[in-house]
């Protein structure tokens, strides 16, 4: 049952329900100690007695609290009151990427700008050994000022080596044979229930970028089984012929992310970001070139300028040759 306005959870006063999902509800609230707006995620009552669900809920808090990055949702607090477990995070104003994609593909520049921010957030998580495992448009938030925030680390996996290195207490290794994630955005190894690493997130990233640029999902089917089969066996439709067209460098970047074999993908988000930046340069320079040469007037003006420069160069060369010939004709003194 949803909490009513005015309910207190510790020092936090509930204001309104703003969302709900499989793990629970999200409310806007007021932090009465610091007098600021916050968001509170409450674990669903039906799951409160499930040790595994409770573990995942606490895992999300610890995993995200270990991160401090502008492209990842900031966690402020975690608590339990009268059997209700809750997580307190920064309050965001804006929409999810899924909401934006409801209107179709994004402009290429905006999609690349968003992609770079997502890659930066993922890179921060991967540097801490944290694999998101559920990257999708619903878990990416676009604030009013255009900043992207990665949400919902409830399925996150922390690699043992990184956990020891950074003192993180969250240890969640993938249980072989158990499929966790969202159909259409899971990597092939994730679909097969195999052990995964950060390259699985890179596959999911490719599926999200594909959708931002094409307006359609990379892998489709009438059921989750069909969608997961497409992830394992099919290649996404080409988007290079989309309207407006997708720059070939960007298309190659997406294809590299969506390789079935993790060994064939980008091996780090650092490499991925570098390739995105290169693709962005190609995209922008191509746009500027088209803009500069686009109108007939500009083409005629540039052609006239080139002709004039060529004539000046020819006249200069002729003058130089004539001067040298005159020098050679001068009589020499005995």
Question: What does this protein look like?
Answer:
The chain is α+β, with helices and mostly antiparallel strands. It folds into two domains: about 10-90, Phosphorylase Kinase, domain 1 (2-Layer Sandwich), CATH 3.30.200; about 95-290, Transferase(Phosphotransferase), domain 1, CATH 1.10.510. The chain has ten helices and eleven strands. The chain has a six-stranded antiparallel beta sheet, covered by helices on one side. Strands 7-9-10 form a three-stranded antiparallel beta sheet. Strands 8-11 form a two-stranded antiparallel sheet. About 35% of the residues are buried. Residues about 160-175 and about 285-300 have low confidence and may be disordered.
Summary, kept brief:
This protein is α+β, with helices and mostly antiparallel strands and 334 residues long.
Number of strands: 11
Oligomer: single chain
Q: Strand fraction band? A: 15-25%
Span of the ends, CA to CA: 117 Å
Shape: elongated
> Helicity level, as a percent range?
40-55%
Order of helices and strands: EEEEHEEEHHEEEEHHHHHHH
Based on the coordinates given, report the CATH architecture of the largest domain: Orthogonal Bundle
| Cα-atom radius of gyration | 28 Å
Strand order of the largest sheet: 1-2-3-4-6-5
Main β sheet profile: 6 strands, antiparallel
Unreliable spans: 161-177, 287-299
Number of DSSP helical runs: 10
**CATH domain topology of the largest domain:** Transferase(Phosphotransferase), domain 1
**CATH homologous superfamily annotation of the largest domain:** Transferase(Phosphotransferase) domain 1
